[in-house]
């Protein structure tokens, strides 16, 4: 099934992916960011967001908290594509800042690396609008006791 077909007539994994996108959109924290999550396949997630001056530190570039949030979210959702029954929790995250960013659209690309049962490892990277890497991170995520089906944002509405 192509990505286009998955978006038009989701079933199985596609339903899970759309429900994860809905879950991301429903999180209160995401009201602070002009961002969008796209699950691009098993073990893959992409978040597109816009850097705004309200995110700046004292030297006039995006604060590291923005880097962490987007890197963590992209890696988290990439890992959660492999888990259809439980919400994952971040248990550790290492990040590296490689370049400051002051404006424009930034993309966080997440990719699952390993783990199938209880602990998952995923990595992510941030790229600016020109495609230059501005940060990267690796996280570990653990299965929680929280059922995805019990979270109000985990839904898929047919158009």
Automatic annotation (TrEMBL):
<dbReference type="InterPro" id="IPR003736">
    <property type="entry name" value="PAAI_dom"/>
</dbReference>
<keyword id="KW-0378">Hydrolase</keyword>
<dbReference type="InterPro" id="IPR006683">
    <property type="entry name" value="Thioestr_dom"/>
</dbReference>
<dbReference type="InterPro" id="IPR029069">
    <property type="entry name" value="HotDog_dom_sf"/>
</dbReference>
<protein>
    <submittedName>
        <fullName>PaaI family thioesterase</fullName>
    </submittedName>
</protein>
<feature type="domain" description="Thioesterase">
    <location>
        <begin position="60"/>
        <end position="133"/>
    </location>
</feature>
<dbReference type="Pfam" id="PF03061">
    <property type="entry name" value="4HBT"/>
</dbReference>
<dbReference type="GO" id="GO:0016289">
    <property type="term" value="F:acyl-CoA hydrolase activity"/>
</dbReference>
């Amino acid at each position: 099934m192509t990505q286009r077909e998955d978006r038009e007539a989701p079933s199985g994994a596609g339903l899970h992916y759309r429900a994860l996108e809905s879950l991301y959109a429903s999180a209160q924290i995401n009201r602070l960011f002009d961002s969008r999550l796209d699950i691009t396949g098993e073990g893959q997630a992409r978040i597109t967001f816009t850097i705004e001056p309200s995110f700046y530190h004292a030297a006039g570039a995006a604060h590291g908290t923005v880097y962490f949030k987007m890197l963590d979210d992209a890696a988290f959702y990439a890992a959660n594509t492999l888990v259809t029954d439980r919400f994952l929790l971040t248990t550790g995250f290492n990040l590296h800042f490689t370049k400051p960013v002051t404006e424009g659209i930034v993309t966080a690309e997440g990719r699952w690396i390993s783990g199938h049962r209880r602990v998952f490892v995923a990595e992510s990277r941030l790229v600016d609008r020109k495609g230059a890497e501005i940060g990267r991170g690796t996280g570990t995520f653990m299965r929680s006791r929280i059922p995805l089906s019990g979270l109000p944002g985990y839904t898929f509405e047919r158009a």
